[in-house]
């Protein structure tokens, strides 16, 4: 059913979002990666290189893969015992019930997998995923991600959540979504009701710029929160989108105004053709450090890196303790620590591996 989402180079050119001169490059990109720009984002775009446009409009640079970029940068495949299941950590597991999204982020770490035709698990595959969860009592949490689980029909979503909630060892459910900002009209009362669960359910909203929180998005978030569902925010640190102190401050303050707690700020995963979004880790640390003391601690997400190859997610935020036993305050002044604290500090602060930092340095 047509919903006003722009999905082809032709549609983007006709809407005046990209010039005719880019048609050939756009066709080559469209042959490889999915495109979708929903009306909620079209309305926010003022220029082909503004923070909203950069996230969703295809760009010729996507056809260039840097040597360090990988089709599966976070190593999902190495931890996938079944189609649509990723079991990386002992206590939690991902299910991707579908790989369809309301928009296709040009920096997506699953960009080689997501798309409008892809990844919808069959009934039998979903049943197999649920059986896997049931057979693994060490699991405590199931995360529905994708793709976007809020694109499932309310009936399908409710069925899946009930099936998972009935598993005695599952204490926590989580849904990762972009729908409330990308397609807020989709958050109907029926969809919000489908989220009702006996097991605590947390929703993690992916948003990267304050302007994504339109009035419609605010209403969608409120509809979800009305069901006593806490909403967390996750964002990706992106060049030209949110790579300034003011953009991050505005994003995190806006989240809090909508009762969305900033949870993760992700270092960009090196997916193919995403180099134009790369912000070096040292710069990310400096941005976070500049926010410290300037915004409430509630507005400070954990800055994280998903180690390539499926080795897990680790915090990479700014450090405040130095090797001499000093502690830096938010203004940058270093103070000595009392001796007993210093002993604890030596144990608590392994250095971030220099080889890893070197490997993540921007490609020249
Ligand atoms: S919504 Fe998530 S899964 Fe979909 S394209 Fe964006 S980052 Fe990828």
CATH class category label of the domain at 69-318: Alpha Beta
Given the C-alpha coordinates, what overall shape results?
Answer: globular
Mind telling me the C-alpha Rg? 21 Å
SS element count, helices? 13
The named CATH superfamily of the domain at 69-318: Aldolase class I
Determine the strand fraction and express it as a percent band: 5-15%
Largest sheet, spatial ordering of strands: 1-2-3-4-5-6-7-8-9
Describe the structure concisely for a colleague.
The chain is of the alpha/beta class and 364 residues long. The protein has 13 helices and 11 strands.
Describe this structure in words.
The protein has a domain at 69-318: Alpha-Beta Barrel (TIM Barrel). Helix content is 30%, strand content 15%. The chain contains 13 helices and 11 strands. It has a 9-stranded mixed β-sheet. The longest helix is centred in the last third of the chain and has 13 residues, at 245-257. It is globular. The N and C termini lie far apart (44 Å).
């Amino acid at each position: 059913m047509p919903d006003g989402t722009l999905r082809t180079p032709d549609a983007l050119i006709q809407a005046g979002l990209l010039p005719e001169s880019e048609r050939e490059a756009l066709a080559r990109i469209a042959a490889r990666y999915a495109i979708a720009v929903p009306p909620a984002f079209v309305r926010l775009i003022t220029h082909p290189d503004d923070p909203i446009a950069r996230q969703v409009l295809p760009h010729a640079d996507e056809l260039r893969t840097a040597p360090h970029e990988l089709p599966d940068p976070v190593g999902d495949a190495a931890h996938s015992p079944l189609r649509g299941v990723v079991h990386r950590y002992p206590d939690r597991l991902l299910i991707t019930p579908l790989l369809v999204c309301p928009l296709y982020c040009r920096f997506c770490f699953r960009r080689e997998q997501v798309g409008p035709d892809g990844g919808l698990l069959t009934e039998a595959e979903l049943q197999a995923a649920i059986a896997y969860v049931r057979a693994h009592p060490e699991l405590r949490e199931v995360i529905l991600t994708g793709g976007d689980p809020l694109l499932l029909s309310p009936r399908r979503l409710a069925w899946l959540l009930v099936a998972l909630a009935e598993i005695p060892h599952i204490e926590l459910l989580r849904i990762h979504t972009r729908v409330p900002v990308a397609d807020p009209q989709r958050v109907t009362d029926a969809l919000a009701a489908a989220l009702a669960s006996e097991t605590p359910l947390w929703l993690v909203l992916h948003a990267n710029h304050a302007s994504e929180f339109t009035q419609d998005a605010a209403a969608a978030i409120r509809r979800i929160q009305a069901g006593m569902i806490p909403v967390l925010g996750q964002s990706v640190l992106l060049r030209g989108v949110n790579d300034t102190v003011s953009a991050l401050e505005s994003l995190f303050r806006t989240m809090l105004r909508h009762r969305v707690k900033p949870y993760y700020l992700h270092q960009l995963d090196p997916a193919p053709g995403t180099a134009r979004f790369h912000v070096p880790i040292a710069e990310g640390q400096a941005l976070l450090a500049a926010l410290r003391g300037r915004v409430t601690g509630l507005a400070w997400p954990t800055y994280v890196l998903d180690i390539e190859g499926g080795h897990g997610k680790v915090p990479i935020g700014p450090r405040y303790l130095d090797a001499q036993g000093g502690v830096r305050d938010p203004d940058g002044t270093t103070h000595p620590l009392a001796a007993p604290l210093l002993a604890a500090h030596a144990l608590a602060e392994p250095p971030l591996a220099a080889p890893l930092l070197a490997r993540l340095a921007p490609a020249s």
